[in-house]
Write a structure and sequence with these properties.
Blueprint lengths: L19 E2 L14 E2 L8 E2 L14 E2 L8 E2 L14 E2 L8 E2 L14 E2 L9 E2 L14 E2 L6 E2 L14 E2 L8 E2 L14 E2 L6 E2 L14 E2 L8 E2 L14 E2 L7 E2 L14 E2 L1
Parallel strand pairs: 1-2, 3-4, 5-6, 7-8, 9-10, 11-12, 13-14, 15-16, 17-18, 19-20
Length: 268
């Protein structure tokens, strides 16, 4: 209170209070009841007080009607949807891009915004190899369908690995004996038909036996065949060709005997 008495020990209801506030009548917050100015006066400051305006004045407290509100739109003059009245770019600009917009074209441009179908290219599938039987001159794109005629039989002399269609001209040559060592050699033979004949000794027991000979020429060297095992009962010392199946051995032939001899052919 303005009349506070520090010596008083009982309130008498006579306290007086001074109203503090803005005492300047020109201020926005002028208080006619205030008896003491507390320095809180706020004086008018004209300007745009709308925070949504492009010219918002944070220091202004009195709107002077000058607020300017932006107009969103595309502000890029090169864009298709340029808006000359727009004051704020809203990211809606559509760039100018000319191209082929037909999805069935080989050069279709999904990013094109301006149609120019005169640039579209349309491929013609087909065989583009002039050497193929189904060559298509108007084809612009090879579709892998080319066909080539030739001999497709790998057994033929003129087998063509690149041929896809057999032309029926496979050459199998003249199948005869092409080996000059054979007695039936045929000089014009182009293929071996397995008919080659070779002369020689065909007796497998003869010392000069020729395993390749197919025709015996009576050249077999004489030989004496017999049992050449000196332990055999019928050992033949003059035999130069051993015939083990003819050898006979003496021994115990009783399988229950302790001295049973399994190779004995007669009991001694």
């Amino acid at each position: 209170a303005d009349n506070y008495d520090s010596a008083a020990n009982a309130a008498d209801g006579m306290c007086k209070y001074t109203i503090r506030g803005c005492t300047n009548s020109s201020a926005l917050n002028y208080n006619s009841r205030a008896a003491f100015d507390d320095g809180s006066c706020i004086f008018p400051s004209e300007g745009c007080i709308s925070s949504l305006a492009t010219n918002f004045d944070s220091l202004a407290n009195v709107d002077d009607g000058s607020c300017v509100f932006g107009k969103p739109g595309c502000t890029d003059s090169n864009a298709l949807n340029f808006n000359s009245e727009a004051t704020e770019d809203d990211g809606s600009c559509v760039p100018y891009r000319e191209g082929c917009t037909r999805p069935d074209a080989s050069n279709y441009d999904s990013d094109a915004t301006v149609n120019n179908n005169s640039t579209c290219r349309f491929e013609i599938p087909g065989c583009t190899d002039p050497n193929a039987t189904n060559y298509r001159p108007s084809a612009t794109e090879d579709d892998g369908t080319c066909r080539y005629q030739g001999c497709t039989d790998s057994r033929a002399l003129n087998f063509d690995s690149s041929a896809t269609v057999n032309d029926g001209q496979c050459d199998y040559g003249t199948p005869r004996c092409p080996d000059s060592n054979a007695i039936n050699y045929f000089s014009d033979a182009t293929a071996d038909d397995g008919s080659c004949l070779y002369t020689g000794c065909t007796d497998s027991l003869a010392p000069n036996y020729n395993s390749l000979a197919t025709v015996d020429d009576s050249s077999c060297a004489p030989y004496i065949a017999g049992c050449a095992d000196s332990y055999a009962a019928n050992y033949f010392s003059l035999a130069d060709v051993n015939l083990p199946e003819t050898c006979r051995y003496a021994g115990c032939t009783d399988s229950l005997s302790a001295n049973f001899e399994s190779r004995a052919s007669f009991d001694d």
